[in-house]
């Protein structure tokens, strides 16, 4: 049977109120009494009931985190940033995988709120009116990580995706006239911003109709392989490919190598994210550095401010990005 606070009180020969004060760190307990209670807890193997404590304090010290794909290195690094800051502020994490499915996302939001979490961090592909409606009616604060709400009504942490894609495209155009772009899913705001950055840089170089060079993937390795197949069917072959995720870029590189195409001598490849994959592939991958760990950490810190009713100067945080050139592109 579960050991209860009553069992601890009886074992230590103190009141249940005293046990509660010891468990909750109340300083108004004599050291000798505190030791008696801790000794009783250790002998009985008592574990405080977080739900019961939450009902009493109206706080459960838990934060719900909804993530599209827990197996993704990108989201794993974000989650690590969230976890480290949560631990620093004495919060526990409940992590759920949504598969970037809208119905599942909405279900998980309600399920998390039903578990009486103190706050929620949401990561997803596309924020719809249904999402915003759930966020607005939430009884606890919600923050977005690497996820854009066009209304800017939900606190969030991101980079400037359009500017990052613009910078990468502009760099590649210094050595290449024919530059293809492997885009992510068409229905996401972040992908649209990356695509706009690519188009803006192309148009500045007099490329009026870049659509012929755009291929759509789903951020996975396999879709990178498939994207390269489509690109190689083009009448005019590109000399460089800008890929909107590192994982897809690996698919492009390996697909090229399988066909005897040398990277970067015959084809330059540029990624986006700077996950650990970028240094695991050969040649190592030039990429946009998106600070995934920092995005997660800042999102969690932002959420703690809202949960603790601290002052928040800017609820929509934009972190800096940078470009790192490795061996998959020609060194300038």
From TrEMBL:
Entries under SUPFAM superfamilies matching the protein: lambda repressor-like DNA-binding domains, Periplasmic binding protein-like I
GO molecular function, one term: transcription cis-regulatory region binding
HTH lacI-type domain: residues covered: 3-57
Pfam families given in the database record: LacI, Peripla_BP_3
UniProt xrefs under InterPro entries: CcpA, HTH_LacI, LacI/GalR-like_sensor, Lambda_DNA-bd_dom_sf, Peripla_BP_I
Keyword Nucleotidyltransferase: no
Keywords: Activator, DNA-binding, Repressor, Transcription, Transcription regulation
KW Chaperone (keyword) present: no
CDD domains, alphabetized: HTH_LacI, PBP1_CcpA
PANTHER family, sorted: ARABINOSE METABOLISM TRANSCRIPTIONAL REPRESSOR (PTHR30146:SF150), LACI-RELATED TRANSCRIPTIONAL REPRESSOR (PTHR30146)
NCBIfam families reported for this sequence: ccpA (TIGR01481)
Function: Global transcriptional regulator of carbon catabolite repression (CCR) and carbon catabolite activation (CCA), which ensures optimal energy usage under diverse conditions.
Protein's name in the database: Catabolite control protein A
């Amino acid at each position: 049977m579960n050991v209860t606070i009553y069992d601890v009180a009886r074992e230590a020969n103190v009141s249940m109120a005293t046990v509660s004060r010891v468990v909750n760190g109340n300083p108004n307990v004599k050291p000798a009494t505190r030791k008696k209670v801790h000794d009783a807890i250790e002998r009985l193997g008592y574990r405080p009931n977080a739900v019961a404590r939450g009902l009493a304090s109206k706080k459960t010290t838990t934060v719900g985190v909804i993530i599209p794909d827990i197996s993704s290195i990108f989201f794993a690094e974000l989650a690590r940033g969230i976890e480290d800051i949560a631990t620093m502020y004495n919060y526990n994490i409940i992590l759920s995988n949504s598969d970037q499915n809208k119905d599942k996302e909405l279900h998980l939001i309600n399920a998390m709120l039903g578990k009486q979490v103190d706050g929620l961090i949401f990561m997803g592909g596309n924020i719809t009116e249904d999402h915003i409606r759930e966020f607005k009616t939430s009884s606890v604060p919600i923050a977005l990580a690497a996820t854009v709400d066009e209304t800017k009504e939900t606190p969030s942490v991101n980079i400037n995706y359009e500017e990052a894609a613009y910078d990468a495209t502009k760099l590649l155009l210094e050595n290449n006239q024919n530059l293809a772009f492997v885009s992510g899913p068409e229905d996401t705001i972040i992908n649209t911003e990356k695509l706009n950055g690519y188009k803006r840089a192309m148009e500045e170089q007099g490329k009026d109709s870049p659509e012929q060079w755009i291929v759509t993937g789903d951020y996975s390795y396999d879709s990178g392989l498939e994207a390269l197949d489509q690109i190689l069917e083009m009448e005019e072959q590109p000399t460089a490919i800008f890929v909107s995720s590192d994982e897809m870029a690996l698919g492009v590189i390996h697909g090229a190598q399988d066909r005897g195409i040398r990277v970067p001598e015959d084809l330059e490849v540029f990624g986006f994210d700077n996950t650990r994959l970028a240094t695991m592939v050969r040649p190592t991958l030039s990429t946009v550095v998106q600070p995934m760990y920092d995005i997660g950490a800042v999102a969690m810190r932002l959420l703690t401010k809202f949960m603790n009713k601290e002052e928040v100067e800017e609820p929509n945080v934009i972190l800096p990005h940078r470009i790192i050139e490795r061996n998959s592109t020609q060194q300038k």
